[in-house]
Amino acid sequence: MNVFVTGGAGYIGSHVVRLLLEAGHRVRVYDNLSEGHAAAVPPEVLFRGDLMDDARLAEGLTGGWDCLLHFAASCAVGESMENPEKYYYNNVVASLRLASAMRKAGVGRIVFSSSAATYGNPLKTPIPEDHPTVPINAYGRTKLDFEAALGYYAAAYGLGYAALRYFNAAGAAPDAKIGEDHRPETHLVPVVLQVALGRKEAVPVFGTDYPTPDGTCIRDYIHVYDLAQAHILAMQAIRPGKGLTFNLGNGAGYSVREVIETARRVTGRAIPIKEGPRRAGDPPSLVAASERIIRDLGWKPQFTAIEAIIETAWRWHKSHPDGYGG
Prior knowledge:
Blueprint: E1 2-6, H1 11-22, E2 26-31, E3 46-48, H2 54-60, E4 67-70, H3 77-82, H4 84-105, E5 109-115, H5 138-157, E6 160-166, E7 168-170, H6 188-196, E8 203-206, E9 218-223, H7 224-237, E10 243-248, E11 253-255, H8 256-267, E12 273-276, E13 285-286, H9 291-297, H10 306-319
Parallel strand pairs: 1-2, 1-4, 2-3, 4-5, 5-6, 6-10, 7-9, 8-12, 9-13
Antiparallel strand pairs: 9-11
Helix pairs in contact: 1-7, 4-5, 6-8, 6-10, 8-10
């Protein structure tokens, strides 16, 4: 299959690209490298460009593509509350321009990188796909807005799509060749491991008074390779004019304190913390019900234990303490 990947030099995108290439697919990565890294993908597949550059995007989409995987986005919950304009431009406006360019280029299938943030504060746990979607942060709202647009495009233009609602992606390639490198880093697992390496003084814990057993937020962590496998299954299942929506998680929740304690065991390092107030837009608990994709597409996550997920991330961070800049 010929696969066009926006944001393919980023954390999740680069792992998907690697599996696509290993499976023999033809791939083009379209990335402006504002958050991605050229070193994360083979140089021959990288086509540098911005989604807001219509001419460059049209050029990139030439050549015939069977499916588009859309990862390019801004993705920090806290930042989305401080700077919602950035999130509406990057996640909604740019995505709509991409959808228009796809139509002109004759690309009829898209797998969209969505988020569990579309649900907001869950009414029940684990969260199924038919749970009400009431985002409490701008990031989740922008993801849900583009999901809605895809539904209208499917009905009006025959677009086929899959919206994959991730819970918390973590981990790295088992051989530690590629991994997570955000600038600045805001995701819990890499921040914890940077503290273990002595690159940061302490792990900030945002809120200790949530209605959870230890007062800190609970999240469902899914290994990035399991996410990557789900994208390949989803792109093969898409049909014209139809939409698919799947949760991607392990169905188990771990608190911030539990993740830190697990990292202490995995690394054998002391990992100090610094408690602080809650961040705006953080729900107390997000845990996935992922039975739909397991049943419908035969998805089988391989990294289900938080220890195994953190262990792969630790190998990447130990061998790349400066990320892709090392």
